[in-house]
């Protein structure tokens, strides 16, 4: 698909959210196809989780996005999909890897959306592939349980905030879920939710540093709760941490099925996005430090620093490993 | 929400219709939420009327639109919502008030769309607020009745019209109502209708003066008739009046539920839009005078002049009042 | 890409225009990529012509559209692309061929849009492929010249038309060309134009027979004139012919680059669309006969009948040929 002006920011960089949406659509297609490959109850694959995703190089208006997806592991009730995105400049022929993402889907029955069906197993070329997949499966399962606990936070508005404080850049948007946002089951596509989350995170980042910003990475996102057609989604973001050249933004998604009496507003998803600020030449710019005021903000800043250092250490370990080979 | 290239004209000014659509969405959400706040029949709030709205300053691509909504009055069967729109340049931090709009909603039962439900009353901080709200309620009710009468006019096409005549710039579009245009009840969102109306009015204005034009204000719009999913909407606009620096365009919306044999084409909405022409520096430009030919056109020109002078007088009175305080 | 409610009519059938748009995007990507495959002036491939296209089976909401494209011939200044569209029901795994389309593109210089560049030749597996391609090239060139002549017709409005007359169903829409409608060169994508044409043709067909209608085929379309960003497009359609179970609609596209003083309104494209009416079970329904009134209408009806009989004869010849093999 050719990237259009609406897919991008003013500087011409395609929004991370647009890319996440394409990734999720590819994942949903391949996993729904797989889960229906054996005769049985028809089902639709619903996104349960996206692993941490790095945006390796920016994509621009006029470039073509090539999205390819492959099923890499199946457990009894879930499918792991690896999606690769390449940006291709069809004028120069240059191709660059933009993303490699890993997504987990769960097949829900078309007749009864609360029923999770069984997944047909895939064949592995080598035994190790299955073992490694199983390890990834166990890890993500644990992480899913953890995030389910901590989902209770709320963003309060601040009157007349100072620049570079948390309150200054925090933002939220509401969106009424329309039919085109939804799967055949009548629930919001995970990709649509991620696109809205990236939009809010981008506004928070731009308000903080007042320059051109791009998505650098997204931490693992768990989709604990489905969001029904006709609901109102509130997406809120606040900055949690800044390093010299990056900003971490926490994003919450709350769903309010407000016509449906049986249920009040609930937290559907939360995630951390990392942004960098780019100069006109595409070089990373220094980021103003986040001013933390309350105890809570200081704690979150330290937590963010922890995640930042952990990611940095992991990346360095990978690079050393790669250098040794 | 960040304003994108598709939200704006070539000069980068966000279409008035895009803003009206955001306003209406915010109003629909807050009033639907309010009307469902007490146990009872679930309902969806349908737009009944938008009060006259001024576009105080243009919004541009890349700016963030901040929309806030508040319920200011409830009658037995209707809700008054005040919506404010601010444009924020997230690079400079500059904020400007773009619009203040007042909308009236009516709760329709989800089970039976022809049933208007009761609205839970709101609490007023001061008794005067309730009295003033009641006054506004009575006034709009009267105006609604009046416009219901005069809704019969049709736009006839003109062959080979001269520049600056009514026939030269008049325009119409048809639109097939899709699922995303509709509420849960299967009727077109008022905001979608207003966006189409602004689109036609803008084309009429641009055809007349062949420059960059922006919406300056919209007169009160009454939504007498619902429009069903699958209908074809015809939106037609014709210029009625020009002052030195503004153009008034009358817009009609006709709905044709053509698959539904029981009903023919009907007039759903009509309204007056005022446009100004802007130079590249954003200064208002003189507008070519409208050439009226028929008796009808001359009468409509005089009516438009009346509305123009009345608005001007009202604005001057407000300014004097403000200066005295 | 998964087909969404917005891509389809109320009966759930994806609009022919949506499919044409996907086809054209695939064609534009592959031919732009090919034309830039050798070092030289960068260029963008612009759609010059689409050959007659049949819609072999309907596509539905929730199905996945698989689009594949291949370059089948190159002349000095043009590229022939064959695009195949398959619909895949990812729940049942059923796949059906929806379309086979042939498109011609011309490479325009990115620096000077009026300069047509040379196309790098492709390699043919067999000499006959080149000869057949050359034959197709010559044929389309002739047809292009012919349609360039006959492009002058205008649709006049009719007051109070009788049901089933030409005037009763004729329709037109206007569209302001936005940034997302355009290529890197700032001209409207051929696919966007075809989608609007199909939208109008579909409304004409639905107004005539007041049932669920789907696109059955599109005659060859020639794109003689580019349409610039910021123009207003008027798309008008009128019925020209009905057989027992099909309707032929002629569609005109006029462009008005109204900010650009140097040029008035001009005819950009015209084409014939054929629609059929479907019952709830997807069976073709009889179509009310078109009532022709003027001499012109009768002549166009006979011309349409000629095209209809010619297509029918061709199809029968192909079937006999297929049976003999």
UniProtKB/TrEMBL annotation, chains A, B, C:
<dbReference type="GO" id="GO:0006637">
    <property type="term" value="P:acyl-CoA metabolic process"/>
</dbReference>
<protein>
    <recommendedName>
        <fullName>palmitoyl-CoA hydrolase</fullName>
        <ecNumber>3.1.2.2</ecNumber>
    </recommendedName>
</protein>
<dbReference type="InterPro" id="IPR040170">
    <property type="entry name" value="Cytosol_ACT"/>
</dbReference>
<feature type="region of interest" description="Disordered">
    <location>
        <begin position="294"/>
        <end position="325"/>
    </location>
</feature>
<feature type="active site">
    <location>
        <position position="9"/>
    </location>
</feature>
<dbReference type="GO" id="GO:0052816">
    <property type="term" value="F:long-chain fatty acyl-CoA hydrolase activity"/>
</dbReference>
<feature type="domain" description="HotDog ACOT-type">
    <location>
        <begin position="1"/>
        <end position="111"/>
    </location>
</feature>
<keyword id="KW-0378">Hydrolase</keyword>
<dbReference type="InterPro" id="IPR029069">
    <property type="entry name" value="HotDog_dom_sf"/>
</dbReference>
<keyword id="KW-0677">Repeat</keyword>
<dbReference type="GO" id="GO:0005829">
    <property type="term" value="C:cytosol"/>
</dbReference>
<feature type="active site">
    <location>
        <position position="198"/>
    </location>
</feature>
<dbReference type="GO" id="GO:0009062">
    <property type="term" value="P:fatty acid catabolic process"/>
</dbReference>
<dbReference type="GO" id="GO:0052689">
    <property type="term" value="F:carboxylic ester hydrolase activity"/>
</dbReference>
<keyword id="KW-0963">Cytoplasm</keyword>
<keyword id="KW-0719">Serine esterase</keyword>
<dbReference type="Pfam" id="PF03061">
    <property type="entry name" value="4HBT"/>
</dbReference>
<feature type="compositionally biased region" description="Low complexity">
    <location>
        <begin position="316"/>
        <end position="325"/>
    </location>
</feature>
<dbReference type="InterPro" id="IPR033120">
    <property type="entry name" value="HOTDOG_ACOT"/>
</dbReference>
<feature type="domain" description="HotDog ACOT-type">
    <location>
        <begin position="167"/>
        <end position="281"/>
    </location>
</feature>
<feature type="compositionally biased region" description="Basic and acidic residues">
    <location>
        <begin position="296"/>
        <end position="306"/>
    </location>
</feature>
<keyword id="KW-0443">Lipid metabolism</keyword>
<dbReference type="InterPro" id="IPR006683">
    <property type="entry name" value="Thioestr_dom"/>
</dbReference>
């Amino acid at each position: 698909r050719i990237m259009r002006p609406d897919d991008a920011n003013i500087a011409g960089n395609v929004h991370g959210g647009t890319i996440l949406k394409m990734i999720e659509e590819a994942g949903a297609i391949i996993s729904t196809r797989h889960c229906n490959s054996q005769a049985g109850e028809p089902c639709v694959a619903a996104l349960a989780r996206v692993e941490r995703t790095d945006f390796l190089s920016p994509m621009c208006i006029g470039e073509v996005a090539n999205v390819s997806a492959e099923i890499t592991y199946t457990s009894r009730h879930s499918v792991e999909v690896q999606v690769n995105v390449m940006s291709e400049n069809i004028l120069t022929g240059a191709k660059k890897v933009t993303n490699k993402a890993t997504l987990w889907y769960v097949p829900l029955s078309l007749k009864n959306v609360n029923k999770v069906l069984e997944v047909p197993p895939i064949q592995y070329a080598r035994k190790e592939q299955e073992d490694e997949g199983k390890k990834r499966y166990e890890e993500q399962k644990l992480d899913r349980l953890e995030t389910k606990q901590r989902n209770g936070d709320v963003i309060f508005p601040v009157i007349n905030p100072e620049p570079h404080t948390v309150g200054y850049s925090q933002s939220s948007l509401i969106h009424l879920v329309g039919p085109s946002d939804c799967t055949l089951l009548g629930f919001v596509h995970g990709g649509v939710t991620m696109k809205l989350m990236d939009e809010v995170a981008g506004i928070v980042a731009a308000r903080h540093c007042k320059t051109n910003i791009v998505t650098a990475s997204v931490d693992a996102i768990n989709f604990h709760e489905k969001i029904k057609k006709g609901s109102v989604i509130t997406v809120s973001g606040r900055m949690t941490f800044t390093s010299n050249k990056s900003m971490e933004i926490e994003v919450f998604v709350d769903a309010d099925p407000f016509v449906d009496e049986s249920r009040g507003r609930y937290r559907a998803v939360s995630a951390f996005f990392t942004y960098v600020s780019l100069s006109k030449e595409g070089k990373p710019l220094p980021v103003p430090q986040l001013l933390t005021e309350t105890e809570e903000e200081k704690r979150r800043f330290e937590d963010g620093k922890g995640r930042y250092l952990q990611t940095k250490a992991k990346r360095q370990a990978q690079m050393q490993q790669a250098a040794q080979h």
